[in-house]
Amino acid sequence: MTTVLRVQDLVKHFPVRSRGVIRKRIGDVHAVCGVSLDLQERETLGLVGESGCGKTTTARLLLNLVPATNGEVWYGKRNLLSLSRKQMRPLRRELQIVFQDPFASLDPRMTVAELIAEPLRIHGRYAEGGRAKVRELMKQVGLNPEHANRFAHEFSGGQRQRIGIARALALEPKVLVLDEPVSALDVSIRAGVINLLADLQRELGLSYLFVSHDLSVVRHVADRVAVMYLGRIVELAPTEALFTRAAHPYTQALISAIPVPDPRKERTRRRIILVGDVPSPVDPPSGCRFRTRCFKYAELSEPEKLKCVNEVPALVDRGHGHPAACHYAEALQML
Amino acid sequence: MTDVLLEVENLTVEFPTDDGVVTAVRGVSYELRQGESLGIVGESGSGKSVTSMAILGLLPKNARVSGSVRFRGEELLGRSDSELSGFRGRKIAMVFQDPLASLNPVYTIGDQIAEAMLAHNPVSKQVAHARALELLELVGIPNAKQRMGAYPHELSGGMKQRVVIAIAMANNPDVIIADEPTTALDVTVQAQVLEALEAAREITGAALVLITHDLGVIAGHANRLCVMYAGRLVETGSVDDIFYAPRMPYTLGLLGSLPRIDSKTRLTPIVGSPPSALNMPPGCPFGPRCPMFAAKCEAEEPPLYYATPDHHAACHFHQRLIDVKPGEIFQ
Question: Name one Pfam family in it (chain A) (predicted).
């Protein structure tokens, strides 16, 4: 397998400014802190975590949509983060994004045909065969080409998300960043979009970075999963391994918190209830960032705790077959 | 026999709009018995929230509500606001989806929990505050003592929702209606809130109506289940019956389209989308999306048939669904 995208030590700090006229910089939101990952050809890499963990920021950094504070994103032989907007432009054809909210991401004054043709026009590809291409794209994502002259508001949420996908596919990209693509959709609609994404990947040989807060969805689409907590990746594993041998306490709590639509199973499941809330990313805890909520940390002896307080746990394999960023990682079956 | 706390009968809610009358709820009937937890599940626009708002008389004035809602035999529909306030909070408490909208931003949470108690009980402020502190601890808020003086904006979403649950518990209600109590929350926080809700149920002995779109939450927290579609109940029964032996194609399709964390089979989506309340198809509202659609479905809206004595399904062909897997009828 070849690596299409390689991310190294990605860092993003957003400044926090004081109120008033001067707006002095008084601190930083540590949104993404040293994230490294790679995306293989024809692979779906799931990036999961709860609100504010930095998963969406990571996705945007990858496409150079927001400037990074530090780090590298290698696409082929080029570091995207060192490119100017102009240099970046031809590469955008190959790296596309689908946003979460299909209501906010489509121009209400454009018809579906115009919406899908827009990326083609921008990149000067509409003149030859653009019309036919739009029809073909509509068919590909399961929309009726006869509806090409309708406006976005005439479609349901699921159909709108299909329009978003068609726009992203118009330029025949190699990598698709999917930022919570099904989170805004109702259950009966969501399954159709998930299946569509799987089919498109197979047909077109795409690589997906699938950002989501929903581990059940990620289980269905991803080959590998990276779990983020407060700006850091805490565990990175092949999907099956993550669900059968989660090694990081946060991943274990996350998996145990997800309800299973199966009453008998649900009655007998072990649930890890975390205490407290996610700390502020303006002033994250020293050492391991999860320790303030960690059930394992609570049971450690004082000298053992010191290690969590003073030393940032590296994301390495501690004998579980995949890397986990916990000094005291221990594989558990949580399902 | 278990005694019935809440009886909803043939509840219908209509809203006049510029485009015509929208019937949001069409003839919903259910019973809530002592100590049980009844789940109501449905997608956006299925009428599940409107049903619960109608029970407490919380709908806007232009809503036309008909049918009957009885609490321990007393009719609630058609009562004035002041009469209803004797029930609201005291007998029937409600937990809404958005805790920020349920809490007053200019009072501390301690005051707000105490206020709920003072509104219905002749107790002193000291007693009310002591009880408020106790309730905060029960719903699992860390450092409850300090938090008593906090304002809603100082708390996270999960904590705010637990405060709302504490308020709901304040008067030992007989019924708690929770409308999408965890929808806006992260999963680990959802687990905390659901645990608080379980604690509330255990301590007050209240029966719970849990309204949600999440079948996973229902599986773990309800005994009986009502499935709503296009303003109607389309299947009711015990949670086990509905999850393991659904008799309505919509329920079956819903279960088949659910990504599950414990398996990785291909999902079987339901085609199309729910009908608009302004433009209902003739006959069975699920007909246009149903793979088992037949002439009879268009001619006649199916009533809730008995599948078994305690399991009802609104499908003419519910018997064909015995032992059928979602993938066998949905593509």
Answer: oligo_HPY
